[in-house]
Amino acid sequence: MTTFSETTAVSPLGEGRYRAELGDAFGFETKPGGPVVLNGGYLMAVLMRAAVAESEHEHPVSTAVSFLRPGLPGPAEVVVERRREGRTASMLRASLVQGGEPLLDALVTTGTLDPDAKPAYVGEQPPMPAPEDCPPPGRARPKKGFPAQVDMRFDPAVMGWLDGDFTGRPEMRAHVRLQDGDDPDPYVLALAIDALIPVVTNAGFPGWSPTVELTWHLRALPAPGWLAVHGTGRMVNDGWSDENVEIWDAAGNLVAQSRQLARAARTRK
Which residues are in the Acyl-CoA thioesterase-like N-terminal HotDog domain (predicted)? Predict the structure, then answer.
């Protein structure tokens, strides 16, 4: 099995350019036998690895991404431009390019986090049942692509939409970990921040909900184990929706936060 760290690896080409080979393991078939479209969090992780490699700092503490085109399996390139180098933080612009077309454009801020730092203040972790009390999603079928690589255990309270029983609120919650055994790190957090079924599903808007822009912050380095991913939204209007995500690690630490703007169906079910 190819690990997540291996399939998101980049190699330097010089002058801020990095080669990547996008695999199909973290993708979804658009239809049976159809082309595979890659998960946006997976693409972010590839881009972030190149940005950090080009920086003097170790961690991507803030990443703001515009999603321009779907990513497909195959060769790609990340082009990184240094915008500011600082003692505690640096800013870089990075583009993930495939076939001469940009897929993602991002502004990445890097820093070096202290793994032993303790927060002066942090709010309470939202409640969710333990992983063993949360079932995997979907009905029995052969797993491949993203569902085969990412173990997701959804809170039963938000999964009634499978039978048309929507909660009426934009919300989704799940425990997440990689099947390959890789411990969570900033790049796994990038995958997890975009792993949930869209929160608008529970507001009665199921189906494809493509991300337009996503900004996320690395708040602490995660402990090994499950990640608790909590997603909510504030408004669905005129075919647009927002999604806010928090990730808490197995030690109860808030490790990532995000907000994204996405498209949504105009008609509620």
Answer: 37-110
